[in-house]
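Folding follows sequence. Below is one example:
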Amino acid sequence: MTIEELVKFIEEEKERLRIRFNVDKMTENEAIFSQTVKLMEEVGELAEQVIASKSLQRSKDKEFSEELLADEVADVILATSMIASRLGIDVEKALQAKIKKIEARYN
């Protein structure tokens, strides 16, 4: 999947969520806050899978699989992309700028 395809999917998903969860009744700030809370939920689920993948989970309730781990990574990327869209951030440009900064550290 390209960044362009991701952005297109995010715009389509925003419309589906708008209809399904009646997002029109929310202010833009409430929608951003709601999506940020969703991101934190997804990060928590990713952390659970990472911990389970390294057999560090205290609870035996959490099942680990490569598929679940990949799903949680994807959920974090999608939730982050949704926030970026709501904030008007061009994900591709933001990634390019950040990578350039990181690479500059090593030059």
Remarks:
- DSSP finds four helices and no strands in the chain.
- Residues 28-53 form the longest helix (26 residues).
- Residues 84 and 91 are 7 Å apart (CA to CA).
- The chain has one domain: 3-105.
